Amino acid sequence: MSQAPSKFADASLQVNRRHVSGKLWLTIFQVATLIGVVALTVLLLTILNDSFGYVAVENKVDPDSLAVNGIPLDAQDKETLMQTLRANISAGLYARFERDQPFAERDAANVYALIQEFVISPRILESWTLYDSLFIREQISETLERDFPNAELQFRNWLSWNFVRAQQSSYPEIAGVRTAILGSLWTIGIAIAFSLPVGVGAAVYLQEYAQDNQINRIIQTNINNLAGVPSIIYGMLGLAIFVRAFGLFTSGIAFGAVDPATANGRTILSAGLTLGLLVLPLIIINAQEAIKAVPNSLREASFGLGATRWETIWAHVLPNALPGILTGSILAVSRAIGETAPLIVIGASTFIQVDPSGPFSKFTTLPIQIFQWTTRPQGAYHHLAAAASLVLLVMLLTLNATAILLRNRSRRSY
Amino acid sequence: MQNSTYAIETKDLAIFYGAFQAVGNVNLEIEHHKITAIIGPSGCGKSTVLRAFNRMNELIPSVSTKGVVLFNGHNIYERDVDPVEVRRHVGMVFQKPNPFPKSIYENIAWGARINGYTGNMDELVESALRGAALWDEVHDKLDQSGTSLSGGQQQRLCIARAIAVKPDIILMDEPCSALDPIATLRIEELMYDLAREYTIIIVTHNMQQAARVSDYTAFFSLSEDGKRTGQLMEYGDTKTIFTNPGRKITEDYITGRFG
Amino acid sequence: MAIPTPPVAPLRRRTRIHEVIIQGLLFLCGLISIFVTTGIIYELSKEAYLFFGYQQWLPAHKPLVADIAPEQTLFEVGTQGPALEVGSHYRIGDEIMLLEAVDGALVQMQRGAQQTEPIAHRAGLTLSREVNPNLLEFLTGTAWEPHNGRFGILPLLNSTLIVSSIAILVALPLGLATAIYLSEYATPTARSRLKPILEILAGVPTVVYGFFALTFMTPLLRAIFGSGVVEIYNMASAGIVVGILILPFVSTVSEDALSAVPRSLREAAYGLGATRLETAIQIVLPAAFSGIAAAVILAASRAIGETMVVAIAAGAGPNFTFNPFKAAETMTGHIARISGGDLSYDSLDYNSIFAVGLMLFLMTLVLNIISQRIVRRFREVYE
User: Fold this and answer.
1) How many domains in chain A?
2) Smallest CA–CA separation between A317 and chain B, in Å?
3) Residues in chain B within 8 Å Cβ distance of A307
4) What is the β-pairing status of strands B216-222 and B35-39?
5) Which of A284, B218, C139, C251 could form a disulfide linkage to B235, CB 3.0–4.6 angstroms apart?
6) Is B210 within a domain?
7) Is C157 helix (H, G, I), strand (E, B) or coil?
8) Which ranges of chain B would DSSP assign to H, the alpha helix?
9) In this predicted structure, what is the pLDDT of residue A309?
């Protein structure tokens, strides 16, 4: 039998070419994957770059001259600090501070902050990024001598302990994020208090009770759709419902907790509820997954013993779904902590120096503070924004690490 | 009130998955304090029938049940009957051991507690574990998780859990199918002992097991009309079914010619 | 052998009140999500409706030439300023009139329109024209200046679409390539190292991305294309960074879709002598197409709804331009900026952002529904 001529091209040659194109594309895929990694690295470097660097500072009073009996300012106790303050500011200003908040109630950090702001009063005239500080040091010195002959060049760590514990200030050199951190914690606390029970309740209903009928299908579809609604829309809902329609309650007027003349609904309570609504669908969907993962054999065992549905849920379904529910909820919460847009819409106050004292306080949050500082034209504020971003990222990282730990520790076998 | 002659009695029992009829026309009387085995080829609805005896089927949304199941003479499918009460009296042991991921002690105590047991819990746990022939193996580790036991021990724990609520009937749905032969043997021995106090109904795909342990045997198979509905083909005392079956289809099955 | 038969069990149904109450409460929890949706739709629609009914009087720059009497319907007005429109309402003082005809400087008015009293007016008083937003203008107008009577959403919509398109152009190829690499090539070790990085990228708050856009991406673009070409605030920088923001989303969901393609399909391709690339591109990718399409649509919906990056980096103020290097406010950016100021209820500003919000909501809703449809069909094929 004679062999028919093959209609295939020279096989080895072709395979070779195919392998070459395979390698080429693999490289492309790898590079594309790497770009994501690079993006994250550059993002972090950008933030770090703005969090440290040289600043040209001019002090009204040299802090070294404020030492009392050889004790430097940093180490003084509250009494000494108060004396230092009284000695260096006008009596009228001192009286005003007393009126704002009696000195008896203030702590040492607070008095220290007043000295920083009103006595030493350092002014940052110019600031540089970490990159500039490391690589164009000479140019910086030249600029300093030429433009700011009286200023001193300091290497500044914007993310200092002072930054974390200091209150908001209109001077970038002493501004801090304590108010914003507390505001974030308050709003998140309220958001969790609202959305966790409701979300888990809804998930339990949908997984354990709901029959496959029209209304339950609508609820399920609706939850899936809500998860995709842009966060700013939740802000508008919060503005219309919590701030405006229920302003009497969210402001605290209805409870007699605040002065009706100045109060309005733009409070921590409104913000917390808005964020609560925002994360509700996420919590429901995550909790549903966790409940779904509880094996049916446990339910059957429980029913087989004559347990009612709720007894089964309470004793077996929920305890076994709890780690999953918590993990999902922590992830939802970390999303809420980073949310900015809805809080802008419901009207977070941007300049607040007083720590929030309860659900009816005006508030600012960490992301809001970052937004405000980012949008200021002066360079010094960008350093604040970067440092605040680092604080926010550390908070989120801590939360996520907790979630992962929780997930790994409670993996159980059935 | 009069006690009835039978522990369970079904009349024209039929079970549907949606529109599909899985089991039909089941008329069965189950004696008190005997072991009754339900055998038959897979997919013939044995487990479905068993789960009808304590209304477990209604946990599956699409299932509907027609006909009558009398438990001690009471139709458990009547409107005013509470499935929770039924299951308290008709306990169940499942195919795969399914202890709660709690301590051994709690596995047993929980069912008693929700059913309003007020006596000495330690005594109850001990007697239930002794009843399930597990006490000697676990008495020194009652606070360990039930899931830490071996498969056979887990299944005996599930039996102990079931008898702790003092049911009248124990349903066993292929209780040994996930176990090795030695563990299986222990469960079979246990069933003998349990039959003194409880009525036992066991579904099994293992005919030797049915022949070994049961007093009565019910043979189910798919109907021959092509509709794939499970039907009770033959029912009688085990010896007769296995030595002198009344129908050819039963004989074919037990001699291994099909199934 | 005499065995006592067990006593008859009381099987009667007990009413377990707390069980009923608990079930009711849980149902209410489920129902809250419905209230949320209803609340969103109701509030957005209500305020948007008020927006379209908002009555504004803008100066028409037409002074009365002579005094007019209450019953006088024909009179003369100045001719400077834009032309008068027949059928529009005009106001002098407290009286509203309907313009019936106009002939040069001579106008014919129906006096005392909209339940106002016809009264005498003195020469020199100027007319104000009534301006109402209408749906047609809202959808087709190319300028968004509500206080000047111009209500076209196109500038906002346009920049939203440009930013989102840039974002998709960045995220789709990168995300898809990442997904193919992770699902078809990467060793388990490589995958376990890369996936957390993507998760971190997804967890970075959007406001931080905004900071990144302004302090890194914008200077980078200005360095590449020249600061004369690229404005400080521009859509390109915002778009690229939004792209990075949705990248982990596209890659994760696409990878899930690729992984869901059964092994047997890959083995069939390998069995025919296909290379890894040929299998991935010609067999696995098409099989996962609908899942990937759903991911991309959902990502687009996110890009459209993304606020902080555009609020920080894309610029303030509506601008109808197709040049991505120019500043132009998006829908979300506009809502954020207007509501960030001191916003009073029932003002034109308040109502207008809800009209924009309604548009935004509908766009994202449609995209979400389409993507869910696709996902559902996808599931039916493989499960």
Assistant:
1) 2
2) 10
3) 84, 87, 111, 114
4) parallel
5) B218
6) yes
7) helix
8) 46-52, 83-89, 104-114, 121-131, 135-138, 151-164, 181-194, 207-213, 238-243, 248-254
9) 93
Helix (H, G, I), strand (E, B) or coil at C1: coil
| Contact call for residues C334 and C359 (beta carbons, < 8 A) | no
Question: In chain C, whose CA is at the least distance from the CA of A225?
Answer: C368
> Which of A130-139, A334-343, C304-313 is least confident?
A130-139
Beta-carbon separation of C204 and A202 below 8 A: no
User: Which residues 362-381 of C have a C-beta within 8 angstroms of A?
Assistant: 364-365, 367-369, 372
B89 and A CB contact within 8 Å:
yes
Query: Would the CB atoms of A303 and B87 count as touching at under 8 Å?
Result: yes
Instruction: State yes or no: pLDDT of C160 exceeds 80.
Output: yes
User: What are the chain A neighbours of B96 within 8 Å (beta carbons)?
Assistant: 297
Kindly give the interhelix angle for A268-292 and A318-338, rounded to the nearest 10 degrees.
Answer: 140
The last residue of a domain, from among A156, A186, A213: A156
Q: What is the DSSP letter of C226?
A: -
How many CB atoms are located within 10 Å of the residue C147 CB? 11
Distance, in Å, from the CA atom of C298 to the CA atom of A324, rounded to the nearest integer, reads 25
In the block, tokens 């469960």 appear at B187
Range among A227-231, A262-266, C146-150 with highest mean pLDDT value? A227-231
- With a cut of 80, say whether residue C4 has pLDDT above it: no
CATH class, range C151-382: mainly alpha
Please state which architecture CATH assigns to domain C56-132.
Beta Barrel (2.40)
**Which residues form the domain of B215?**
6-254
Q: Delimit the domains of chain C by residue range.
A: 56-132, 151-382
Domain total for chain B? 1
CB A364 within 8 A of CB A349: yes
Residue A351, chain C, CB below 8 Å: the answer is no
How many angstroms separate the CA atoms of A119 and A128, rounded? 25
In the numeric block, which tokens belong to residue C368? 């979400």
Residue numbers of C between 121 and 160 with CB closer than 8 Å to A? none
Residues of A within 8 A of C182 (CB-CB) are 33
**Which residues of chain C are within 8 Å of residue A50 when distances are taken between CB atoms?**
215
Phi, psi of A13 (to 5 degrees): -60, -45
Q: Tokens standing for B74? A: 């009471």
- Is C50:C348 a contact under the CB 8 Å cutoff? no
Whether C30 has its CB under 8 Å from any CB of chain A: the answer is yes
Distance CA A313, CA B93 (A): 20
Q: What tokens were used for A40?
A: 């994250």
Digit-coded pLDDT (tens) for C174-197: 999 999 999 999 998 988 888 888
Render pLDDT for A343-387 as a digit per residue (tens, 0 to 9).
Answer: 999 987 767 777 888 888 888 899 999 999 998 887 789 999 999
- Pick from B221, B238, B243, B245: nearest CA to B35: B238
Listing DSSP states for A194-220 in one string gives HHHHHHHHHHHIIIII--SSHHHHHHH
All residues of chain A having their beta carbon less than 8 Å from the beta carbon of residue C186 are 33
How many pairs of residues across A and C have Cβ atoms under 8 Å apart?
261
Q: Do A293 and A321 contact (CB within 8 A), yes or no?
A: yes
Residue A18, in any domain of the structure = no
C1 burial level (CB within 10 Å; 0-12, 13-18, 19+): exposed
pLDDT of residue A407: 75
pLDDT in tens, A44-87: 999 999 999 888 888 877 777 778 777 887 788 888 888 888 88
Mean pLDDT of chain C: 88
Q: Does A396 touch chain C (CB under 8 A)?
A: yes
Cα-flanking dihedrals φ and ψ of residue B63, to 5°? -85, 135
Any domain includes A168:
no
Q: Compute the distance between CA of residue C372 and CA of residue C364 in angstroms, rounded to an integer.
A: 12
- Are B235 and B252 in contact, with CB atoms under 8 Å apart? no
A226/A319 same-domain check: yes
Interface predicted TM-score (ipTM) = 0.89
